[in-house]
Amino acid sequence: VRSGQVISWEWGIVEKGTEKGRTITVTDRPEAGVAAGTFLWNRAYVTSTTYDPYPDDNTAVFITGINESALVYLPLVLRNY
């Protein structure tokens, strides 16, 4: 299995109150890499990703635009440090 390879998929939670272009985090799940186009339950979607400054805190950082809480389907990515 290569570093960066998707090994499984899990649901995460995106908190409401975020704005388009705002960097937000996904919590309540193992460390994730979030790809552009990732599906959101409320039909929003991930527009781009940004480097996760704290890769071991069970969050994944990305940029999107939603105005309500949402579930997001995340790829779990193997990372070599």
Would you mind describing this structure in some detail?
By secondary structure, the chain is an all-beta fold. The chain has one domain. The chain is 0% helix and 40% strand. The chain contains no helices and five strands. It has a five-stranded antiparallel β-sheet, with no helix packed on it. Strand 1 and strand 2 form a beta hairpin. The protein starts with 5 loop residues before the first strand and ends with a strand.
Mean pLDDT: 50
For the biggest sheet, the summary is: 5 strands, antiparallel
Topology as a string of helices (H) and strands (E):
EEEEE
- Which strand-content bin applies to the residues? 35-45%
Overall structural class, as computed from helix and strand content, comes to mainly beta
- Distance between the amino and carboxyl termini: 15 Å
Percent helix, as a range, is under 10%
Number of helices: 0
Radius of gyration: 12 Å
DSSP strand count = 5
- The spatial strand order of the largest sheet comes to 3-4-2-1-5
List its salient traits.
single chain; mainly beta; 81 residues
Summarize the structure.
This protein has strands at residues 6-14, 22-27, 46-49, 60-64, 70-77. By secondary structure, it is mainly beta. It has a five-stranded antiparallel sheet, with no helix packed on it.
Write the layout of secondary structure elements.
Elements: E1 6-14, E2 22-27, E3 46-49, E4 60-64, E5 70-77
